[in-house]
Amino acid sequence: MRYKMIAMDMDGTLLNNKKEITERTKKALKKANEKGINLVVCTGRIFTSALFYAKLIGTKAPIIASNGAYIREKDENKVIYKKCLEKEDAKKIISLAEENGFYPQVFTVDTIYSRKLIYSSKNYSLWNEQIPKEDRVNIEIVDDLYKVVDQNDILKIVVMSEELEKLFKLKSFIKDNIDVSVYSSLENNFEVMARGISKGNAVKILADFYKISPEEVICIGDNENDISMIQYAGLGVAMGNATEDLKLVADLVIDTNDNDGIAKFLEEYIL
């Protein structure tokens, strides 16, 4: 089978644990790109951050951000797909999170809003310090997240905590009682998007856009929010560091993100 598209998760997959793309991985991706394979960054991250890494690997393909809620061309302001949370749903999520003592992080296309610099907003703030000004993510600390919802299109809301039992009790409640998509991308978070949003759905939209069949698609990931795209792909690939649930649905398990897993896979199976 000649594959025409490779969709890759970022954290825990394309990036090592230092949040870097290794030279070996860049080299292998460049060769795959030269063979005419569309390289797609498919991430839960905000578009601005995904764009920064897409530039590093030299792909010209559109970017899937916010777990599939937003698909946009890399080099021009052309939105292929966008689906936002209903405003009432977003407000319910914020209310439930705050009632439980959590600090929800509210994501638009280009800005993260939070009542406190903590978790996602803090991580992006630290990341901003290491990159050029034009590539930085906007972070706004605000008193009123409900006002943010009223005035903006909300792509996703992230809730993080080290109180895991309490966190996942809330995750289950939201999944059972509010008509939204809920996934975890880390062991201490969950992310809420509009109903029907998933990486698998986004990869399908992009494959259809390119007139590529599922059989011609490879998807690579490591966590719960990657399961849908692994199931969609002709070849679903799990990183060695992936969750057991993801490994169970994958066609192939490769080396870890900290051991050039993607590069080794491409060298052996694609190049």
Automatic annotation (TrEMBL):
GO terms for cellular component: cytosol. InterPro entries: Cof (IPR000150), HAD-like_sf (IPR036412), HAD-SF_hydro_IIB (IPR006379), HAD_sf (IPR023214). CDD domains: HAD_Pase (cd07516). One of its GO terms (molecular function) is magnesium ion binding. It comes from the Bacteria. Coiled coil: none annotated. Gene3D superfamilies: 3.30.1240.10, HAD superfamily/HAD-like (3.40.50.1000). Signal peptide: none annotated. Pfam families: Hydrolase_3. NCBIfam families: Cof-subfamily, HAD-SF-IIB. This is Cof subfamily of IIB subfamily of haloacid dehalogenase superfamily/HAD-superfamily hydrolase, subfamily IIB. It comes from Caloramator fervidus. The lineage of its organism: Bacteria, Bacillati, Bacillota, Clostridia, Eubacteriales.
